[in-house]
Specification:
The protein is an all-alpha fold and 392 residues long. It is built from 14 helices and no strands. It is 82% helix and 0% strand.
């Protein structure tokens, strides 16, 4: 925090996190407000995720060739424009499913370019020995906002409609863009065009066994987690617990675990970074397992807290390992290729659940999801290269 550029980066992350925490609820009610239902919301969410899947690798190539601070500035500016237009459409009651999806598509493009640049930017700002603490500090405000943001969004939407929350999201992106413009990070020293960058990135990704095996296992883990917790969790809570009240407690417990995991990462510096990331990420199997077994709510809450702690430790340890073991001129592409796997898992998990819904009971599918997370974790821990990625 003594580094001025890092303080600026943290402040930008905090400001944009406040808007991003409100946006999902506001977006859902914007779709409902113009007469849309589940199908319309699904179209909007799919349209938002499509460009991040297709363009993230291109964003990684550019992050290894251009100034990352300039990419972050332009990406946040584009997101501010998209959310501002959306807020105006909703406020004037001219929003349609198509227009909302179009704004979401533009926002998805912004994410595709800013996500790889952000990972590399931290490595340029902070010394290697402080990377883990820097990554943890960056996650701290976002995790804190996840606890309060949805509540604030609910109050704001109830009082004045979704346009107000969407307007704040646009303003937060604009403020973050202006803060990031002041970083003025130099461009990585690279040669060759876009196609050569893509080929070189794929070659580097494939040659690192620890990287592609972690990405493959992570795709399975994320898909099973989204299907088991995000999709089936509310359904089970409605049928076997106290409905929305119980599910709100579970979500709060998970957010609390994320915060606790961040605090752990500020103090604990594991030596085998990647092995710790793999093992702690396996804790995501606990909430689906508890729900699938029909355990009492306190056990589900405990599983959610432990899953949150494990996930945040895994993210910080993984990001630190990537930044320490990948050269700066490849970091954007390696981060992007890992990110593609996680983003592909979103439609994959939902689609697999939809196909299995006719053949399996909800609780059985939850147990399958928990088992898939556990098996993927164990198989990844069997990869010898995982234990060679150590703290430097």
């Amino acid at each position: 925090m003594r580094v001025p550029a890092f303080r600026r980066f943290v402040l930008a992350s905090l400001v944009s996190a406040t808007g991003s925490a409100m946006a999902p609820l506001a977006l859902a009610y914007a779709v409902i407000g113009q007469g849309g239902g589940t199908g319309s919301l699904g179209v909007v969410l799919a349209t938002n995720s499509l460009p991040t899947i297709v363009l993230t690798v291109v964003g990684g190539v550019l992050a290894d060739r251009l100034s990352r601070s300039r990419i972050l500035f332009l990406g946040n500016l584009l997101a501010a424009l998209a959310q501002g237009v959306l807020a105006a459409l909703v406020a004037t009651e001219h929003a349609t499913t198509a227009s909302i999806a179009g704004c979401g598509f533009v926002s998805g493009i912004a994410v595709a370019f800013t996500a790889p640049a952000a990972t590399g930017a931290v490595g340029q700002i902070v010394a290697a020995e402080h990377l883990q603490q820097a990554n943890a500090l960056l996650r701290l405000p976002g995790n804190a906002v996840k606890v309060l943001g949805p509540v604030a969004a609910g109050v704001l939407v109830a009082a004045g409609g979704p346009a107000w929350a969407l307007s704040w999201d646009a303003v937060s992106f604009l403020v973050a863009a202006l803060l990031l413009l002041g970083l003025r990070l130099s461009s990585p020293v690279t040669t060759g065009g876009l196609l050569a960058g893509l080929k070189g990135g794929w070659s580097g990704f494939r040659s690192r066994t620890w990287l592609w095996t972690y990405t493959a296992a992570g795709t399975v883990v994320v898909a099973a987690w989204l299907a088991g917790f995000q999709l089936l969790g509310p359904v089970i809570a409605a049928g076997h617990y106290a409905g929305a009240r119980s599910w709100g407690l579970v979500q709060g417990a998970f957010a609390l675990g994320l915060l606790a995991g961040t605090v752990v990462c500020l103090r604990w510096k594991p030596y085998r970074l990647l092995a710790v990331a793999v093992a702690t990420g396996g804790a995501l199997c606990l909430p689906p397992l508890a729900l699938g077994l029909g355990l009492a709510l306190p056990w589900v809450l405990l599983g959610a807290v432990l899953a949150g702690v494990g996930l945040d430790i895994a993210i910080v340890a993984w990001t630190t390992a990537l930044q320490q073991h990948v050269p700066q001129d490849e970091l954007g592409r390696m981060s992007a290729m890992n990110g593609v796997g996680e983003r592909v898992a979103v439609p994959l998990g939902y689609l697999a659940t939809a196909l299995a819904a006719h053949a399996l009971a909800d609780r059985t599918m939850l147990l399958v999801c928990a088992g898939a997370i556990a098996v993927a974790t164990v198989l990844n821990l069997c990869v010898r290269d995982v234990y060679r990625v150590i703290r430097r």
